[in-house]
Write a structure and sequence with these properties.
Elements lengths: L5 E6 L3 E2 L9 E3 L2 E7 L8 E7 L1 E8 L13 E7 L4 E9 L4 E2 L3 E8 L3 E2 L2
Antiparallel strand pairs: 1-2, 1-7, 3-6, 4-5, 6-10, 7-8, 8-10, 8-11, 9-10
Length: about 120
């Protein structure tokens, strides 16, 4: 069994993003945060759901100018996982300014949802 990792990311705005190997690239498909609600009787304990955004965080090789991420607010990302599997994040946006470091750029995208394609 092969462990799944983020292998490739294609942006509809920027093309293929130059992911850094071992850059801690992560993908959360979104879902719900559940907060436990206590009660005086165990049978009445439950939870309240709050939707959470889909999120892609990554480290890119600094092969592009970090300012290209400045105005991204309606991108479509296709995320390819190693060992197969694809997800799409429609209407994705950059959450904060891209950070340029030692030959790498750190980015975070959010989207209201993600869709499993394969």
């Amino acid at each position: 069994m092969e462990l799944k990792k983020v292998k490739r990311v294609i942006s509809s705005v920027l093309g293929e993003l130059p992911l850094k190997d071992g850059g801690g690239n992560t993908f959360k498909p979104g879902g719900f945060k559940r907060e436990t609600q206590g009660a005086e009787v165990a049978e009445n304990i439950g939870y309240v759901e709050t939707p959470t955004a889909a999120e892609l965080t990554g480290t890119l090789n600094a092969a592009m100018d970090p300012s290209v991420f400045r105005n991204i607010s309606n991108d479509t990302l296709t995320i390819y996982l190693s060992g197969g599997g694809q997800h799409m994040m429609p209407r994705a946006w950059i959450t904060e300014a891209a950070e340029l470091g030692n030959g790498e750029i750190k980015i975070t995208y959010n989207s209201g949802k993600s869709e499993k394609l394969v």
